[in-house]
Amino acid sequence: DAGITQSPRHKVTETGTPVTLRCHQTENHRYMYWYRQDPGHGLRLIHYSYGVKDTDKGEVSDGYSVSRSKTEDFLLTLESATSSQTSVYFCAISLDSSYEQYFGPGTRLTVT
Amino acid sequence: QQPVQSPQAVILREGEDAVINCSSSKALYSVHWYRQKHGEAPVFLMILLKGGEQKGHEKISASFNEKKQQSSLYLTASQLSYSGTYFCGTEGTGAGSYQLTFGKGTKLSVIP
Asked: Can you tell me whether residue B31 is helix, strand or coil?
């Protein structure tokens, strides 16, 4: 299994509070991704990174920001959480852009 | 544009074959296939690249029709372990297409 961990694995937070999710890899893969998964929508890309300090938006980036200061860590921040951001968040890594992606175990976030 | 998968759900008996289709409205560079079991992370199955290169999995094969922007996943002699939701992810050929867009998934249930 690819060495990917996500923390926390579960979180309950209140509307309006900031939340940061962490993805950590030990594979030295160049690309890292954040997805959210909601019933009926499949996986939707929030942001991705193609190197340290190199990030770009995905299809559902509004309300989210990311940072990557080290190859192994990719952080997803919800500046002010809303109930619509209740979801399961998956981090993924890949060696390069057209290579297979390996997914972390996911973080279940509930915003009340 | 999110690719369209069909069928949305299928039930098979062990040993039967299944085909899952993925169709996109944009020109594609690659198609990825993943399987996700309930409560788990998606797992890579197959990648098909423009030009015909294919990397895959025994007993599971796939095709990629570049002209029609379509891919099909073939599951032969299904086993109980094949149960799960199958997602296709498509990568476009346009500039900056470093991301996958996933379909909504096909739920496959294999029964004894």
From this structure: strand
CB pairs A-B closer than 8 Å: 56
Residues of B in contact with A41 (CB under 8 A): 104
Q: Do B47 and A100 count as a contact with CB atoms less than 8 A apart?
A: yes
Selected residue of B100, B101, B107 to mutate for chain A interface (largest A Cβ count, 10 A): B100
The model's confidence at residue B51, banded by pLDDT at 50, 70 and 90, is low
B35 beta partners: B43, B86
B58: Cβ–Cβ under 8 A, 6 or more apart, which residues?
Answer: none
More confident residue, A44 or B98: A44
Interface test with A, best of B1, B26, B37, B44 (most A CBs within 10 A): B44
The reply to whether A89 touches chain B by the CB within 8 Å rule is: no
For residues B5 and B35, what is the distance between their CA atoms, to the nearest angstrom? 13
Binary contact (A98, B44; C-beta < 8 A): no
Q: How is residue B19 annotated by DSSP?
A: E
How big is chain B by its Cα radius of gyration, in Å?
Answer: 14
**pLDDT tens for the 112 residues of chain A, in order:** 569 999 999 999 999 999 999 999 999 999 999 999 998 888 999 999 999 999 999 999 999 999 999 999 999 999 999 999 999 999 999 988 778 899 999 999 999 9
Start-to-end CA span in chain A (Å): 34
